[in-house]
Amino acid sequence: MTCKPRGRIMTGIKQLKVDSRQEVDVSPTFEHRVHIPSSALQRSRGNVPEVEVQVVASVINSSYFKVTESSQRSRIPQIYRRNGKVFRDSVVCVRAGTRAVENLSQPITLSFKHNKEVESGTCVFWQETSAEDGTGYWSGQGCETNYTAHEFICSCNHLSFFAVLVNPGISVTKADADKLSYITYIGSGLSAPFALISLFIYIYLHRRHPEKSISLHMQLTVAMFCLHLTFLLSSLLVQLLKEKEDSSSCLVLGLVLHWSLLATLTWSALEGFHLYLLLIRVFNIYVRRYLLKLSLIGWGFPTVVAAVCGISRVYGKYTLNYSNSNLTQHICWMSNESEQKLLIVSYITTVAFPFLVVLFNACMLGLVVFKMWDLRRGDRNFGSSSDWKKINKEKRKRLWKDCVTVLGLSCVLGLPWGLASTTYVSLPGIYVFTVLNSLQGLFIFLWSVALAWSKSQAANNSSARDSSSQKMMTTSFNSGY
Fold first, then answer.
1. Structure pTM?
2. Strand 24-29, strand 32-36: pairing
3. What's the burial of 159, exposed, middle or buried (CB within 10 Å: 0-12/13-18/19+)?
């Protein structure tokens, strides 16, 4: 503010005396523009009688800003933290008058030009920490982001050091958030009743053909029904609770939702394990009290984890903050209040554990595809796979059955959970993950219908005309799986 250049022009900085009763536009560089309303200039005067105020706008390299170390970041509220790279390493400093200016009713506007080299960005300002080491962090509090074809437009309610973080996460607008919410609610609303119908189908099949695989399908379906139903109740209840974050009802629903998610993933892993026994350990796979032992794992593991987390008071109202604004969503899940516990529990149970389950089951599905291909190669009636033009209707039908089998197994093994990694890459990835996982109950229903149909076909046709597909679907998946 007090620097007075002499003898040469300083680039990247603009100083000027302005009338505080008028708004002002300042452009420290060709790529940056700042608009300050008169209300902000008048507040910056303080008790000084002079009408004119000094305004300074400058561009500083982001390397001068030392971000707080990870060991200290746990003390920073999650809603204020932003991760990412500073756009073009440029930080715009805006100062006016003799006093700090904040909580403006008319925000200041900053424009950062771009050449479409980035797809998303978040407007932030520099917030120093209480530690006297000169460190801080980028916060989006009080700033809103608008993205046009040529520039980022930041609207902030204070004067400070401003920047745009590019790719701090996928930018989700309010319109996208509303669409994703509708997709999730509609998908779960369909999955819950369809999962219940699937359970009745499996019960019917189990009474007619008592098999271990159908019992596993029943357990998985129960867990999935609880997951979608509890999710809907958690989302509905948190809207009714409003500010009552420590409600015991929300705590209970958060616990049941976490338990249901763990149970669904655990039973998906057990489905993969059972498939391993059928395809690898074809002979000598008798295990005493097999279903009882699997049930102890499938229901016991989630219960122990949820009980420990419940005793540690991890559950409560959770607020999801989107990366581009102050837009939030609420659900009864793990409370934001216990952030360190939330970080540990969430990483282990919703990142590491699903990753291991999806990895193991993906290997099992790959083994299924290999076995099916091996059976096809051994089937002389199937013909050469390279002679596609001569494949008749019957052979195409067998290929279609194999594709349906693989897709159905993908849902049973919980492989759609693996699409969670795409949510960190692009907005379409978020949509794909949301659609497929919210409709898991419907996919399980389709698999149960296909299983019932294949059993009826096997019963009506005792002759094995399809020596490969019949072996895989009827012998392996129906008798064992």
1. 0.66
2. antiparallel
3. buried
